[in-house]
C-alpha cells in the first residue's frame, strides 16, 4: 500500500493494474476500508484497467481528522490523489457513503469524471431525523468503540440470509468495521449528516452512469436506485439478486460482470 501526505492528512491507497489502463477510482463506504473492493480490483486490473482504491481519511490506514469531515473534504482528497497520480480523469465509483462521495466529486470536480458507478446509495440530503441519528451514533462510537455497532448492523450491511450462508464474507466485513478508528467513523457521520442534495447534480450528468443495488438492501433499497435511474438520463440500473447493501462483497462475480459490461459499453474501456 502506498501513502501520500495531502491536505493535512496522510492518505493510503493501492494502485492496481497497468499504468496505461483506463483509470477506475473505487470509494469504499462507512465504516470500511479499501479492501472492500478487493474482488473488483482483481477483476478489473486483470481486464486491463488501472484501479485505484484509497482508504478514505479516517478509515483503514489513512490518518484521522477528528471532529467533522464533510463529503466535500473526501471529494477534494480524491481529486488531490488523482493529481498526485497524474490521472486527469477516471471512472469514479462508490458504494453507500462512497457513492455519495462520488456524487460530490461530480459536483465539485466534474472534469475528473469519465463515468459514474453508484452502488447502494441515495441522492437526497439527510433528513432532520437522520441528522439526529447520525450525530447520536457518532457520540456512541466515540464512547463505546466499534464492536457493538459492528455486531448490530452486520445483518443490514449484508442481506440477513448471507450472514449465515457466507460466514467468510460476514467475518471480513465485521473485521473491517471493528478495525475502523471510532474518531474517523464519528467525523464522517457528522459530516454526512450535513450532506447536500445531489439530485440536481445527477440530473445534469450527461456521461455514462451505472446504478447498482442489492435486491435485498435494507439501507438503500431498490427504490432509491430507481430514483437515481429516473434522475440521470444516461443511467443503467442493475439489481444484484441474493445481495444486500454490499453486493460487490456478497456477489462479486455478478457485480464484476455488470461492472465490466458497463465499462465496455460505455466506451471507457482499456486504452
From TrEMBL:
InterPro entries: AB_hydrolase_1 (IPR000073), AB_hydrolase_fold (IPR029058), AB_hydrolase_sf (IPR050266), Epox_hydrolase-like (IPR000639). This is Alpha/beta fold hydrolase. One of its GO terms (molecular function) is hydrolase activity. It comes from Streptomyces triticagri. Keywords: Hydrolase. It holds the Pfam family Abhydrolase_1. It comes from the Bacteria. SUPFAM superfamilies: alpha/beta-Hydrolases (SSF53474).
Amino acid at each position: 500500500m502506498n501513502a501520500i501526505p495531502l491536505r493535512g492528512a496522510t492518505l493510503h491507497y493501492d494502485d492496481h493494474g497497468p499504468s496505461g489502463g483506463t483509470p477506475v477510482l473505487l470509494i469504499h463506504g462507512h465504516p470500511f476500508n479499501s479492501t472492500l473492493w478487493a474482488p473488483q480490483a482483481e477483476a478489473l486490473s486483470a481486464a486491463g484497467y488501472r484501479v485505484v482504491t484509497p482508504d478514505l481519511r479516517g478509515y483503514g490506514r489513512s490518518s484521522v481528522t477528528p471532529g467533522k469531515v464533510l463529503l466535500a473534504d473526501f471529494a477534494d482528497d480524491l481529486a488531490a490523489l488523482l493529481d498526485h497520480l497524474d490521472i486527469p480523469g477516471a471512472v469514479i465509483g462508490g458504494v453507500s457513503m462512497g457513492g455519495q462521495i462520488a456524487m460530490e466529486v461530480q459536483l465539485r470536480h466534474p472534469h475528473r469524471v469519465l463515468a459514474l458507478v453508484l452502488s447502494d446509495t441515495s441522492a437526497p440530503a439527510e433528513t432532520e431525523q437522520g441528522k439526529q441519528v447520525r450525530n447520536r451514533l457518532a457520540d456512541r462510537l466515540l464512547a463505546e468503540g466499534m464492536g457493538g455497532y459492528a455486531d448490530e448492523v452486520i445483518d443490514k450491511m449484508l442481506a440477513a440470509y448471507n450472514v449465515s450462508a457466507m460466514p467468510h464474507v460476514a467475518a471480513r466485513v465485521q473485521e473491517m468495521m471493528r478495525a475502523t478508528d471510532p474518531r474517523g467513523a464519528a467525523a464522517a457521520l457528522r459530516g454526512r449528516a450535513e450532506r447536500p442534495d445531489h439530485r440536481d447534480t445527477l440530473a445534469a450528468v450527461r456521461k455514462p452512469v451505472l446504478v447498482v443495488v442489492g435486491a435485498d438492501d435494507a439501507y438503500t433499497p431498490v427504490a432509491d436506485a430507481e430514483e437515481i435511474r429516473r434522475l440521470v438520463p444516461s443511467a443503467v440500473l442493475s439489481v444484484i439478486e441474493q445481495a444486500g447493501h454490499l453486493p460487490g462483497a456478497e456477489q462479486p462475480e455478478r457485480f464484476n460482470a455488470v461492472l465490466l459490461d458497463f465499462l465496455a459499453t460505455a466506451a471507457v474501456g482499456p486504452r
